[in-house]
Amino acid sequence: MIRPTSHLVTIDRVDRLFRTARDGQTFTLRIAFVMVWSFLLFTSARMWSGMMPPEAVNAIDVLALAPLLVLIALRPVWGIIVIGALFPVAGILPSVGFTTSVYPLLGAATLLGSLRMMIIERFPSPHVTSLDVLALLLVVWIVVSHPLAATSIGNRVWVWTYLQLLLLMFLTTQLLVRGSDHHALMLMFVIGGVVSAYVALHQVQYGLSSATSLRGRGLAEGANDAGRSFVFAIVFIAFLRHVYKKRWMQTAAIAAIVLLLAGLAATVIRTSVLLLLIALILLIIEGTTMLRERIVEFGIALAAAALLLIPPGYWRITSGILTSILQGHDWVGFRYMQWDAGLAMWADHPLHGVGIGQFENNSVYYGTNFIPFYGLRWSAHNTYVTLLAETGIIGFVLFLAVLVGALRGLWKGWMSQTAAASVSLRYTWATVLMVMLIGGITGDDHVHKLIWLIAGMGAANLRPIIGRRTG
Q1: What is the 8-class DSSP label of residue 464?
Q2: What is the mean pLDDT of residues 294-298?
Q3: The pLDDT value given to residue 180
Q4: Measured between alpha carbons, how far is 359 from 443 in angstroms, rounded to an integer?
Q5: Which CA distances in Å does 303 have to 248, 297, 298?
Q6: In degrees rounded to 5, what are phi and psi of residue 205?
Q7: Which residues share a beta bridge with 205?
Q8: 419 burial type by CB count under 10 A (0-12 exposed, 13-18 middle, 19+ buried)
Q9: What local confidence, expressed as pLDDT, does residue 412 receive?
Q10: Is residue 438 within 8 Å of residue 275, measured between CB atoms?
C-alpha cells in the first residue's frame, strides 16, 4: 500500500473536519455554514460596492471564494451542489477577469477534487454512457459545422462553454450519487430562492401591464431566471418536506412557499405562472403520495400569498395571458416575430444552421421587414428555434437526443426503485427538467447549467459503455 505524502496527510486532516457527520442532515447543516458565509460576503460586496474601493470588493470576493474552493477540492460533490444551487442568486456572482465568470473556478476545483479521489482514494473508474457520447457529438458538430462561430466570433467562445457543460454533466454522473447530496443541492437552491424572492419584492413596481411594470429580478441574472428559479424552489420544497420533518422546518417550508409565490408575482413574468401550474399538475399525477398529499398546503400558501403579499394589480396583468398567447399581443407577438426570423434562417441553412451564437447577428437580415428596429440583434427567446437556426437539423436532433436520454435515465432509475423516497427524488428532478423543457419555448436554455446537470443524473442510471472498476 502506498502511503500518502506529507502534504496529502495535511489535506486528509482538513478533510476529516468535513467528514465528522455522515448522517446526511447534520452534515448538510454543517457544510451550509460555509455556503452562508460565502453568500453573505458576495451579497455585501454587491450591495455596498459603490461605497468601497475596488480593492476592498476584490478582497471580500476572495474571502468568499476561498473556503468554497477549498471545500470543493476536498469534497468535489459539493462543486456540483454549489453550481446547481447558484441559479437563484447568479446575479450577485463576481466576474473573474481571466474567465469572465466564477463558474470555471468552481468547475476546476471540482475536477481537481475528482482527480484526487481517483488517485488517492481509488475512486471507481468513470461511468461513461451513450448519453455522454451524444453530448460529445453535439459539441463536435457545433465546432465542425461553423469553426469560426464556435471559437472566435461573438462575445463568448462557444466551444469552451459547451465543453464546460459537458464536463459538468460527466462529473454529475460520477459524484452526485447519494440521496443526502441531492437533498443538500435542493436545500441550498431553496435558501437562495427565498432570499432572492425577498429582494424581488422590494424591486417590483406594478404598472398597467407587464410592459409598463418594473420587474423584480431578485438576486438572479434577470426576471425570467428569477421566476423560473422560484418555481423550481417550490418543487424542491414539496420533496424536502418529507426529508426534514422537524416541526419548525415544516412551518418554515410553508412560509418559504408563501414568499416564493410573492416573489414569482414580483417578476411580472406571466409564463412563470403557467410553468408553476404545469409543475403542480406534474406533482399531482406522481405515482406515490409523498408529493400529492402536500397540494392542500400549497393551496393554503397560495391563498396566504395572494391575500398578504400580492397586490390586485398583478392579477390584472396576468388575467390577459391567454389572450396574448392566442392573439399575439404585446411581448408575446414580438416573440412570434423572432421565431419567424429563426425559422427563416433554418430554411436557408437546414443542415448546418447559421452558426452557434449567430442568431442575433443574422436577425438583422431575416427580421428587418417585420421585427421593430429595437428588437433586432435580440435572441430568439426559444431554445428549439435557436438550435434549429444556429446548428441546423443535426445539432437540433443531437440536443433533443440528449434531453430524451436524460428523461429515459431518470425514468429507468425511477422504475427500478421501490422506496417511495427514491422514487419521488427522481420524479422531482424529472419534473424540474420537464418544466425547463416547456419553459424553453420562451427562453434560450440550451446552455443552461441545470439542464446539463440533470442530464448527468439521468446518465447515472443508464448502462455504461465501459465497465466500471470497483476499486
Answers
A1: P
A2: 64
A3: 85
A4: 14
A5: 21, 10, 9
A6: -135, 110
A7: 214
A8: exposed
A9: 82
A10: yes
- Determine which helix (DSSP H) or strand (DSSP E) holds 317, and give its type and residue range: helix 312-318
**Three-class DSSP labels, 412-460:** HHHHHCCCHHHHHHHHHHHHHHHHHHHHHHHCCCCCCHHHHHHHHHHHC
C-alpha cell at 30: 454543517
pLDDT above 60 for 167: yes
* Residue 176 near residue 457, CB atoms below 8 Å: yes
Nine cell digits for residue 357: 451564437
Single-letter code of the amino acid located at 390: E
d(CA 172, CA 152): 29
The rounded Cα 116 to chain-centroid distance in angstroms is 27
Query: Considering the chain, what is the average pLDDT of its residues?
Result: 79
Q: Count other Cβ atoms within 10 Å, centred on residue 245.
A: 10
Q: Residue 4: what pLDDT?
A: 41
Q: If you search the block for the grid coordinates 456572482, which residue do you land on?
A: 93
For residue range 174-192, list pLDDT tens digits in order: 999 888 889 989 998 999 9
Reading the block at residue 137, the C-alpha cell is 457529438
Cα separation, 326 vs 341, in Å, equals 19
The Cα–Cα gap between 127 and 460 comes to 7
In this structure, what C-alpha cell is assigned to residue 156?
Answer: 463568448
- The H-assigned helical ranges of 121-267 are 130-145, 147-151, 158-175, 179-201, 223-240, 247-266
Position 58 scores a pLDDT of 73
Three-state secondary structure call for residue 8 = helix
CB neighbours of 276 closer than 8 A, spacing ≥ 6? 231, 234, 264
pLDDT at position 369, please?
55
Nine cell digits for residue 356? 452557434
Identity of residue 158: W
